[in-house]
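Justification of resources, computational component.

The compute hours requested in this renewal are based largely on the per-chain cost of generating structure records like the one below. Each record pairs the submitted sequence with a full structure-token output. That output is archived, and it is also reused by downstream analysis tasks.
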Amino acid sequence: MSYNNIKIGDRLEITLLRDKMGKSYVSQVEEVLGEDEVVVHVPISYGQLVKLSSREKYNMLFFTEKGMVEFDAEITEYTKESEFNFMHIKLLSEGRRIQRREFFRFTCLLPLKFAKITDSYHDEQLEQVVLYDGIIKDLGGGGIRFVSNESVDEKGRMKCVFMLGDECLVVIGKVLHKQFYPKSNYKYQYRIEFVGISLPEQEKIVQYIFNEQRKIIQKSHLV
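The structure output for this chain reads:
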């Protein structure tokens, strides 16, 4: 895919090239300077600007009108204009088409209700199951990471219920990874993959993430 498919306003996810499963950051394209140079907003996490190292190589996943495309990239410089902070990105590889729909992982603190379910579970049974409490720590179109004091088996399934603004989302998830922290306020941390989530539901999550990210950026420039 050509560099020319990247346009102003396109969203992107940034992760370390050597650790693609690690923490990711959300940004947006501000300017396209050439076929291999792009200016993007400096990511923000917990209300603070995140200045990524220029000595690392990164995976940049762009969401364009022609679909998702990723590049190896590096950060060449930081600039500031009219109270906005930008990173200049040099793209180091040819674009690679990506078919996955996992999207961005957004750091957050969202209340979660969840129920342990079996493969024979039906939607109308939600009111009949026990709901447990948890806190979502990061959110993406393909799943969540959350903490809770309730134990769920790895590879187990659950019904996840959480609010995105004024809208309640109910999706089925599968436990991909479970960690135990005996001295923590929340004893268990889970990484959950959404199972059978619809494209409209994914789009609701992605739109929520970018609306929240936009609010954070706006607030940071008012301080």
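The longest strand covers residues 67-81. The two ends are 40 Å apart (CA to CA).
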